[in-house]
Amino acid sequence: MTKLTFPEGFLWGGATAANQCEGAYDADGRGLANVDVAPIGPERGPVIVGKRKMFDFEEGYHYPAKVGIDMYNRYKEDIALFGEMGFKTYRLSIAWTRIFPKGDELEPNEKGLQFYEDLFKECHKYGIEPLVTITHFDCPMHLIKEYGGWRNRKMLEFYERLCRTLFTRYKGLVKYWLTFNEINMILHAPFMGAGLYFEEGENEEQVKYQAAHHELVASAIATKIAHEIDSENKVGCMLAAGQYYPNTPHPRDVWEAINLDREGYFFVDVQARGEYPNYAKKEWERKGIEIAMEEGDLDILKEHTVDFISFSYYSSRVASGDPEVKDKTAGNIFASLKNPYLDASEWGWQIDPLGLRITLNVIWDRYQKPLFIVENGLGAVDTPDENGYVEDDYRINYLAEHVKTMRDAINEDGVELWGYTTWGCIDLVSAGTGEMKKRYGFIYVDLDNDGKGTLNRSKKKSFDWYKEVIATNGASVK
Ligand code: P53
């Protein structure tokens, strides 16, 4: 008989990010951030990749992060619903600009600190362990305007101050931390990922890898401080994952798949093994990329590696070394070739549950550190009835198939996995498109792409389904 349950203490839950759900963008002293000024619509793409300069709200655009789903004011109701589902953990992110509105102040904003303290206490009322992303794409606008975002080494100081403030204030309330959400996003959406805006004619790769070095050192320093302040703290890195498959058995396709995987694993190689991998150093050499480092940087990276590796997984990817093959899938920043064996979501994201087992195994084999799936889910159009109820069997199917392969990775392959938080456990604003229509939640939020709606919450069919999964520790998924 195959075992249907997950390990005891497995951390089931859901995930959100501050800028995609909190709203209240200027409440209680909060400052403006890069993630606020990304509008819905055709300009969003150019803005988040750093090609269209939009450093403030502009006339004629709709900015969904301003209101989000108003969680800033409704978090008690929302956490009560998470509690009802039996969440063991809730992954959320801190809005940097609530704590340091401009980013370079010496003293934090007490109202911002109090907000998260109250929120964490609310979680603990229901036995929910917070899992906190220190930065989920957000960077104070002031730091972008004054310093150029993560291209500037000064960012280390500001980030360190943020981390020290958080670890000190929330000692005993939070023990799971992630330093940077999807750190590899810096390569694909550098304005959203790291506050990078490019000037005409600039060597973008040089800037991106320099900024990446700053983030990697900042992450190691954060890990060091977290452990010093509380030895109970567990710090993880976070990768937008999804294994690359070769388009054909042609060796050049296999080689391309390896190279594209390395673009992402590069970050984890540094954060989990503590060293820049040779393949990256060689590539920088070939491309004339020179990374300015200070004395001690490499020691810090070596000495303060992460305790666990977390990642998001939505889909596998396909690579071709053949320049003629260009049939790209739509709708994802990580544009990849189409895999003819897979179905896709309404946004063209290909659905591959076995790919999750594959990704888990590859990462486990490579690092031998505990893993945590901190995002997975299906973005879909939901049609609620008059009571706000959604019969979302498509979402249940997607999640069930992924729960099964994750269980296989643990029970059949021996992968060490600490937990699973589904993305957007309550409907929220899409990071990639800014839409509300692209929903991931167990909880429906009455709000549309234009910002119209009552903001009322209601349970979908998947709400009770997930509640059962958690109550049976996975055994209800057959
Ligand atoms: P959305 C692609 C594009 C943008 C963000 O994405 C992404 C990805 C997927 O790798 O990363 C994460 O909202 C991110 C979340 C985001 C989620 O994927 O475009 O960490 O903030 O909402 C889903 O459907």
TrEMBL record:
Biological process per Gene Ontology, one example term: carbohydrate catabolic process
Q: Which UniProt keywords apply?
A: Glycosidase, Hydrolase
Task: Please give the Gene3D superfamilies that the UniProt record associates with this protein.
Answer: Glycosidases
Uppermost EC category = hydrolase
Record GO terms (molecular function): 6-phospho-beta-glucosidase activity
The keyword NADP belongs to this UniProt entry's keyword annotation: no
Q: What is its EC number?
A: 3.2.1.21, 3.2.1.86
GTP-binding is among the record's keywords: no
Top-level lineage group: Bacteria
Which residues are responsible for catalysis?
Answer: 375
Q: Name one GO cellular component term.
A: cytosol
Q: Where are the transmembrane segments?
A: none
**What SUPFAM superfamilies does UniProt report for this protein, alphabetically?**
(Trans)glycosidases
Could you tell me which PANTHER family the record lists for this protein? 6-PHOSPHO-BETA-GLUCOSIDASE, GLYCOSYL HYDROLASE
Spell out the family assignment given in the record's similarity comment: Belongs to the glycosyl hydrolase 1 family.
| Name listed for the protein in its UniProt record | Glycoside hydrolase family 1
- Native organism is Streptococcus merionis
